[in-house]
Amino acid sequence: MSEPVDLAIIGAGPAGLAAAATAVELGLKTVVLDEQTEPGGQIYRAIESVTAKRSDHLDILGSDYAAGLELAQGFRASGAHYLPQRTVWQIDEERNVFASGPNGVEVIAAKRVLVAVGAMERPVPVPGWELPGVMTCGAVQNMLKGSSLVPEGRVMVVGLGPLLLLIAQQLARAGADVAAVLETAPLGNYAAAMTRLPQALMAPGYIAKGRAILAELRDRGVALRRGVADVRLTGDDRVREIEYRWRGRSRREPVDMALLHQGVVPNANLGMSLRIDHTWDAMQRCFTPNVDDWGNTSTEGILAAGDCSGIGGALVAEWRGRLAALDVARQLESIGAEERDNRAQPVRRDRDRHMLVRPFLDTLYKPRHDSLAPPDADTMVCRCEEVRAGEIRQLTTEQNCPGPNQMKTFVRCGMGPCQGRLCGLTVVELMAECRGVDVSEIGYYRIRPPVKPVTVGELATLEEIDAG
Amino acid sequence: MFKQLPDDNAELVTVIIEEQSVKVPSDYSVAAAVLANWTGPSRTTPVSGAPRGPYCMMGACFDCLMEIDGVPNQQACMIPVAEGMSIRRQDGARGVEI
Ligand SMILES: Cc1cc2nc3c(=O)[nH]c(=O)nc-3n(C[C@H](O)[C@@H](O)[C@H](O)COP(=O)(O)OP(=O)(O)OC[C@H]3O[C@@H](n4cnc5c(N)ncnc54)[C@H](O)[C@@H]3O)c2cc1C
Ligand code: FES
Question: pLDDT (tens digit, 9 = 90+) per residue, A92-103?
């Protein structure tokens, strides 16, 4: 086995990039593995190519996106060893990191591992969400960033959250025909969020940016319908129509594409496979890993930073990444506790100030209960194994299926290739509702490695690499 | 389903989607190439044969599984296109067991 590196970072988004630059600066031998072809993560996806090859598209994507270049450049200049197109599917107890990529399977031994795998969009189980032509808002934004592709035809943007509005704005700028933004936040959320507004205004920039996006959507003539409910998509080999309730009336309209979004949740599978303790967040409706102020988890030698450690947004992700790197440097004795604390002080201050906006956003964009636990029995819950909401309810109430792991063996939900990423949260919300208990009492699927499918052929290529 | 924004600097590669030869920018993923040249579902499901297309474009949902250069169950949204690549829809075959 080759000499272990000091720090292996999984994920080259803001958290991983910032952590890597800090770690190298403090003298740590650092490797960064990421599934994408370029650094940037979700927010800054393809930032280097867009800036170099199609900089006119930066106007569409906006200044927050363009700002990511600096982070990517800082990372490139740091000298951290970067392994793109590597999917990490297992980290064992000795902190050997297993990844698949263009060279087959590679293993990297590390003294510390930072999990910085970001967030994913929350599943949006509405009738018809499995039809071709129905995609997430983030998916379409990803295509705009990575491939300069814009959805064709009549597009409906449906759901809630800051990203929903940002992406609607980017699509409108890119010339997409955004027929309307259908916001599904319950109208009561607005009143509830108001009490959090003064605190949110202390976090720099967020509220003003939100207002600017709303104003631009209005100027561009994109209708914003608030208080939409009962969304249903219908079609044949692709989506053709959308039905929804708005202002007490049912509506039905033709669509060419429907783009769904209900906020983002931590990308939890890798962390869960490491047996990191997680806690149910009743406000954000997701499981979040338990971390200390530096990102240390309950599993020895494993830290988590960025949106996978709890949703805080891209800037907070960056600062959490730096803090994690500082503590790793202390643990490995490249710096002392005092230097760590001195360096951490301004970073913590920025992080804490920016977190002030979260209670407002979490309250305003808390999904409706029926977006989390679909009332319609035919709604697809597990897309891989085609398990519907009615089956989950029936097994919970009539067969007393005790938990999500037993549900797996009953109907195979969570056993398909996505490993429950797209059904797990819905299954536990449905079970909690049927039992009349909190989701924390239901728990979650037990996630075991490999967290992404690996073939026997890939395993045959297993080789150790010296990341030096 | 998607149209390309003007991009004069794009380098093009030729890929074959279901016998149809198309030119796409070299930094497309396979799923992007398929969505930009949509002729029908990129896969049908093993359970009921229902049509599906890419959904998340970030490697989470596995609804973009396709047959790429003869290998089934490939995550089309995570694989960049390459010159001469053959891309086929995946009919029903069950995803990789894990
Ligand atoms: C689709 C999507 C689009 C978003 N767009 C925006 C936006 O435009 N603006 C905004 O403010 N926020 C956006 N967000 C929110 C996002 O969470 C940001 O706050 C920010 O990107 C978080 O940074 P991060 O470093 O924590 O994670 P990310 O930026 O998500 O980076 C995580 C990285 O880890 C990699 N990764 C994940 N799993 C593995 C694995 N097993 N092996 C190897 N690599 C892995 C991913 O490829 C990714 O590059 C988006 C979120 C999503 C899900
Ligand atoms: S589209 Fe979701 S994994 Fe590829």
Answer: 999 999 999 999
DSSP for A317-367 reads HHHHHHHHHHHHHHHTTSS-HHHHHHHHHHHHHHHHHHHTTHHHHHHHTPP
Out of B32, B65, B97, closest to residue A143 by CB: B32
Residue A467 alpha carbon to ligand 2 centre in Å:
29
Determine which of A143, A177, A307, A408 to mutate to test the interface with B (most B C-beta atoms within 10 Å): A143
A119 CA from centroid of ligand 1 (Å): 5
Distances (CA, A) of A401 to A420, A428, B77: 17, 12, 35
Q: Which ligand 1 atom is nearest residue A17's CA? A: 25
Domain topology for B12-91:
Ubiquitin-like (UB roll) (3.10.20)
Give domain limits for chain B.
12-91
Residues contacting A195, CB < 8 A, separation 6+? none
* A313-371 confidence digits (pLDDT tens): 999 999 999 999 999 999 999 999 999 999 999 999 999 999 999 999 999 999 999 99
Q: Do residue B42 and residue A132 have CB atoms under 8 angstroms apart?
A: yes
What does the alpha-carbon distance between residue A345 and residue A357 come to, in Å, rounded to a whole number?
20
This model of the complex carries an ipTM of: 0.96
- In contact, B53 and A132? CB cutoff 8 Å: yes
| Distance in Å, CA A327 to ligand 2 centroid | 35
